[in-house]
Structures are given as structure tokens and as C-alpha cells.
Amino acid sequence: MKILVTSGGTSEKIDRVRSITNHSSGKLGKIITETLLKAGHEVCLITTLQAVKPVSHPNLRIIEIKNTADLLQVMKDKVMDYQVLIHSMAVSDYTPVYMAGFDEIESSQDLTEFLDKKNQETKISSKEDVQVLFLKKNPKIISLVKEWNPNIHLIGFKLLVDVSQEHLIQIARESLEKNQADLIVANDLTQISSEQHKAYLVEKNSFQTAMSKHEIADLLLEKIKSYD
Amino acid sequence: MKILVTSGGTSEKIDRVRSITNHSSGKLGKIITETLLKAGHEVCLITTLQAVKPVSHPNLRIIEIKNTADLLQVMKDKVMDYQVLIHSMAVSDYTPVYMAGFDEIESSQDLTEFLDKKNQETKISSKEDVQVLFLKKNPKIISLVKEWNPNIHLIGFKLLVDVSQEHLIQIARESLEKNQADLIVANDLTQISSEQHKAYLVEKNSFQTAMSKHEIADLLLEKIKSYD
Hints:
Chains A, B: Its EC number is 6.3.2.5. The structure is a homodimer. Chain A is α/β, with parallel strands linked by helices. Chain A has two domains: 2-93 and 138-226, Rossmann fold (3-Layer(aba) Sandwich); 96-137, no CATH class. Helix content of chain A is 27%, strand content 32%. The first copy, chain A, has an eight-stranded mixed sheet, with helices on both faces. Chain A has a two-stranded antiparallel ribbon with strand order 2-3. In chain A, strands 7-8 form a two-stranded antiparallel sheet. In chain A, helix 5 links the parallel strand 9 and strand 10. The first copy, chain A, is globular and about 60 Å long. Chain A starts with a strand and ends with a helix. The model of chain A has no long low-confidence stretch (mean pLDDT 94). The interface between A and B is large, with 41 and 41 residues.
């Protein structure tokens, strides 16, 4: 099958020298990609500069992107041509809009004025003791996937931090429904280390538990076979 | 001589999954370190996870740090034991203090209240359309170096974006004086690429021009010989 995988984490520029980055090593996306390739699938991996990459393979194409706007563009182009999307990339929820010193913000009568402003400087001055950064929400790309290709099998990811298993699975089920996904891989940062990677592969009426990145990849491979 | 080099860029956490990062590949710090080692100097390199590292060498010790607080601690410990500091790391000027939805900020009578707040969540919710991040200024570590070791030879760096040569050199001279530095390497992001790296090595009454990372390293090596 033709499978689109995303991995790594996006970065959103504050100015030419600073960014807000979502952490993601890309290790899981690499293992998933390599597992799919070994099973004979064709993979296009959308990833970021800092993420670790799979070893090259005749059935692998890699596209590097930086930020959410790039990702939206590439996904919109590609989603139509693939049968499965495994969307493991950590995507920035917000993009910096405007940064200013505290005094400028405090003396404003109407804070909404800053939402339409843009910094003119290429490197924002660092003279102020306190700075205030306004950020606006990015489009939720996962929610657009089924509009672009209603037939694609959509596998999403949900990362929370230090929550109960029940809560994690509930949030995954909400994402499943909202994004019309086939499956959500739900994981908790406190249960991810170099030795383990606990995750729940959550479907509408059931879930499976994986204890490592390789187990996640193997379970996803099984699942994808059933989509064929 | 015993030389302390810093390279890479620091990251300041917003929450467990997001950080503000200062971009720096670490390439210049790597070349400077390798040049110094080849000339027989002993180097301790303070750098960051993402930065490229020099090849290992019996006279090289590498210390990895993440954020400005780490850097402050390590520098305070180490500066005393070295004769020269080459401080090429891109250090975050600000650290996130508190992030909140726009409504919470807008309805406040006194914005200073947010400067003492801390986010309780481990992953800040992404429901709001606009978020506002308050950041406070970090201590300027370069300005503390001579307090910790009045005898150290201090070589600082100044990176600006798209300014005139005159302005760049003027800003470098201000930094020279303010931080009691021996030399400031002043460079402009628009003149740095994989092919070139233009920089001015600015001293009180003169400056030298380098056109590549290797030229910067060679000129610094010459300069350090004169300190001995």
C-alpha cells in the first residue's frame, strides 16, 4: 500500500534567531517507516530537520518541512495519493504573532490591537526586563485530512503528560470521533524513555497496549494489513 | 593553554513538550575547538544536545547543557580554572514564566499579576484561539565572567541580522566595554551560509575581517597565542 507517515516536531519562528519547537526525536516515525518498508509497503515520510531519519530505501521518499504552514501545504498536496496516513509528528498548536516589551502591553487600552501587529525587527530587541508574546492557534491539520481524502485510513497520535489510563483513552476516543480517524495511538510522556514506550492503540470499541516503539510499529503494520 | 569554548544554542521550556530555542548549529564552535586542539591547547567545550560536536580528542572534554540556568551554573564552576573563554553559544535572552489564554489576560486589572504565576499543567491546554506568553529576562552570563575570574581572556560573540558594518562594529565595541571583553566576534546572519561566514574580530582600536569559519578559528588561535 501507499502510506504517508509524519514524524519529528514542527518549529514556529519568533524571529530570525528564535523559534518555538515541539520536541520529538522522530525515533518512533523512523521505526514505523522501516517496519512498513520491510513489509513491502511504499512510504512517503514527512519529517523535520532535527528528526532522526530511516535508512534510505527504494520505496521511501522523505520530505522535510519546518513549520505548520509547510506541513499543511505538503499534506494537502499528498493526502489524496495515499491509502493510509500515520500522523505521528508533534505539530505546534500555536504560531507567534507579535512580541513586545511589557510596558507597551501594559499601557494598551485594548489588547486585541496586538493580534494584528507584526514585529518589524529581524531580531527582536532584548532590552526589556519582561516581554510578552502573542500566539494564535494553528489550523488542526488532522481535522482536515478526511476532507482532502475521505477514503484514507487515518491513524492519529495523542500525547499527554502524567494522566490516568482512563483519561488518556477517553481523550483518544474524542480525537477518533472528531477527526474521523480509524485509530489513535495514545501515549503519556512519563511512560516514554529510551527503554520503553507504552502506548494504547485506541479504536472505537477496543484498544491494544504496546510497550515499545517496535511493538507500536508491529501492531500498526497488522492493523494496516486489515485495511487492504 | 586551558581554554573554555561554548557552542550551540540554549532552549527554554514552555512546558514539557514545547521550548523556545535559539538556533545555532554548533559548526563554528566545533571548528574553533578542533583548531585549538590541533595547536596543542586543552579545551573544555560547553554545548547543547542538537549542536554538532568535535571529534573526540585526549585534550577535549565536552559538557552538555540545555538552558541558561544550566549554563550559568557550569560557567560559574568552570570559568575560574581557564585562561581563555570563547563564548560562541547562542544564549536565550528570555525564559518563559507563564502562559495563558487571551481572555484571562484581557480581563485582568493588573498585568503584573502574571509575572509571579506559574503554569500548573505539564502540557498547557490548546483550546484557546490566542495565547499569551510572559517571558522574563535571563541574567547576561557574559557580563558575569570577569567577576568570576578577573584574569580570564574573554572572547564574546555578537550576532545581528541585516545591519551595516558600522553598526555591527559599534555594537561589538559597546559589548567589549560593557563585558570587559578582550575581543568580540561580530557577525550578521545574512552573511552566514554553508559557503561563507563573514565576521569582524573587534578589539578596542582595531578589527580584523574573516570570511569563513576556518578563518575565524585561525585568527582566534593567533590572538590566543598573544595572550600567552
